[in-house]
Amino acid sequence: MAALLLLLLLLLPPLLLLRKPHLWPGLRWLPADLAFAVRALRCKRALRARALAAAAADPRGPEGGCSLAWRLAELARQRPAHTFLIHGPRRFSYAEAERESNRAARAFLRARGWGAGPGGGAEAERAAGVAGAAAPLAPGDTVALLLPACPEFLWLWFGLAKAGLRTAFVPAALRRGALLHCLRSCGARALVLAPEFLQSLEPDLPALRAMGLRLWAAGPEARPVGISDLLAEASAEADGPVPGYLSAPQSMIDTCLYIFTSGTTGATVVLKSKFSAGQFWEDCQQHGVTVFQYIGELCRYLVNQPPSTAEHGHKVRLAVGSGLRPDTWERFVRRFGPLRVLETYGLTEGNVATFNYTGQLGAVGRASWLYKHVFPFSLIRYDVTTGEPVRDAQGHCVATCPGEPGLLVAPVSQQSPFLGYAGGPELGQGKLLKSVFRAGDVFFNTGDLLVCDHQGFLRFHDRTGDTFRWKGENVATTEVAEALESLDFLQEVNVYGVTVPGHEGRAGMAALVLRPPHSLDLVQLYAHVSENLPPYAWPRFLRLQESLATTETFKQQKVRMAKEGFDPSALSDPLYVLDQPGGAYLPLTRARYSALLAGDLRI
């Protein structure tokens, strides 16, 4: 296959020049495209060989087929003394990870009543702490983990896989209705929670018990009646291998875990309970980190830190992730390099992903003909007003032109399936588009707008829900934010659309955080937006904040900010409004707010 691709490298350029003139600008990147394709095919071949080797193993033996449990056991045999995990001063080898997860697996198997002999099920039920409140776990049941980043999280996750149980990663900040919704949606039968969460979860305990959940705490601290210490139970178990047939999957699409938030795995892993921008480079130096994964605004937090000696002399060679804006990308590499940035695009539930294997600043990948042949996807025109794709007279979607923002969609097939969401197939129907290019075809709707330029580079444009329409034009929040972030006195910017009574669409509003020790220069800000943005994209409102609200995965909170609006009587932050006739931003007083609602103040 590699030889065939090299032959294509020699033959295709002249053929493409003759038959596909629109591909000419991207021909210089053809060697990189082919090199990436060769690596992808080699990786695919290696994975297939590994799966075949696992399938050939005795399904009732310790391997148990190709699974998470099988892979950990394989690595523990191959490199038992190699460091698997670093957490603060503690280090764990692959062999230790295997033993600890075996203990956890046996504790979960005891809750299943496995190997307990006659009466095992009754014993497991009594272990729940409340008679009749939680039945014994059954193969394939889901156990939710509500834990911080810690080694025990991994031991329990691997232990559940070995015990033939599914895992649900529940975000640690969830409480009340949101927590109950997540537990119901994945069909959880048990919940393991951190002792430090018990106090904040106390109001939820009656509802959790009413759901029939078995409750465990991961630690010996004081706990309410009916909640046992899972770690103590696991420590009392043997650490020998668990029979592989308990975790052997029936097929490659068997459910292993449910994810409600993002996660990371690698080789040696350095785990930290909480992200600290101020300690990041010290941690990298201390542990000899060579690769780290970023998401959202994480890299911006790093470049906004004051200079330190720890940021030089590190061994980091590669940063992998998504959500890195071009301005931050350039500053990050210039300050902390030399290192390589691999920006990617993908969704946990999606069937399409892209990789910026060329290192092109600001791109998330390439839409080369070769990549799209192996991993097909399309960009189609999208109507922000209706929230639907644009269709032609035949009812089919319309592909975008180079430079035009489009909705990213990918065909659903046996090779690239969409498996849906926990809770039932009907929950995933809203993510599917039918009859996109021909009658009866089905595509996955990513909900993201991307732009493909004339060289074939893909750039993230906006979320469909974030792009808004004002004065009959589409406004991309990322475009406005990037323009504002180039001002030296602004450290962070969050752009979103707000509804204004008496006006169609949504008006742009920008939440701003100043870069110390600068002050807000409204004159320069107005001059900057008027020179760098079209008039319809100028922010109509400004909100000055000490810091921006973000999600657990460092993504900006846009929906909440939009709901809070721009009423000066309801917000304590300094607010400003665009006075377009006067060519300035003015403080948004209550008088000006009233004039705006009455239609006397034009924006």
Automatic annotation (TrEMBL):
GO molecular function, one term: long-chain fatty acid-CoA ligase activity
Domain of life: Eukaryota
Reaction catalysis annotation: tetracosanoate + ATP + CoA = tetracosanoyl-CoA + AMP + diphosphate; a very long-chain fatty acid + ATP + CoA = a very long-chain fatty acyl-CoA + AMP + diphosphate
GO BP terms in the entry: lipid transport
Pfam family, one: AMP-binding_C
Domain AMP-dependent synthetase/ligase: 137-267
An example Gene Ontology CC term for this record: endoplasmic reticulum membrane
UniProt enzyme class: ligase
Signal peptide annotation: 1-18
Xref: Gene3D superfamilies: 3.30.300.30, N-terminal domain of ligase-like
Record-given protein name: long-chain-fatty-acid--CoA ligase
Species for this entry: Mustela putorius furo
Gene that specifies this protein: SLC27A3
